[in-house]
Amino acid sequence: MLRSHFALLGSLTIAAFVACEDKKPDIAPVPPPTPPAVTATAATTASVAVVASIVPPSSASAATSAVPLASASIKPPAIAAASASSSPTAPTCGDKPLPPCPLYSWMKANTSPAMASQDFAALATALDRIVAFAPPGYGNWGSIALDGAKAARDNKLDGVKGACRGCHDQYKARYKKELRGRKI
Question: Domain-by-domain residue ranges, the chain?
Answer without folding.
Answer: 2-85, 102-179
